[in-house]
């Protein structure tokens, strides 16, 4: 699971240092159905992947929320958001959260 957060760290640094591009697209074009549907599909795909990779599909939504929180906090916290969310995910997967 940590490798997913490590890859997200690279993505945020190199491609999305100002936050989530999906949310920016929805904000810029709030009535565009195609954008909203594409973003929804993408987020649901990420949730499915997190459930599969963790081998705990019942935690997929919680993991998605942690994953997505990084793009919101990145512009302020940077790499610290990766470390914190990754640690929280590990606690969740161990049943400590």
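^ structure tokens above, recovered residues below v
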């Amino acid at each position: 699971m940590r490798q997913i957060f490590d890859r997200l760290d690279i993505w945020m640094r190199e491609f999305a240092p100002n936050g989530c591009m999906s949310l920016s697209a929805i904000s810029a074009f709030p009535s565009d159905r195609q954008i909203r549907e594409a973003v929804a599909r993408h987020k649901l795909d990420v949730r499915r992947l997190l459930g599969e990779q963790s081998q705990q599909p019942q935690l997929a939504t919680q993991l998605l929320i942690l994953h997505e929180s990084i793009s919101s906090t990145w512009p302020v916290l940077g790499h610290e958001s990766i470390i914190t969310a990754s640690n929280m995910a590990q606690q969740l997967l161990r049943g400590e959260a």
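Helices lie at 2-14, 21-28, 33-54, 60-77, 79-93.
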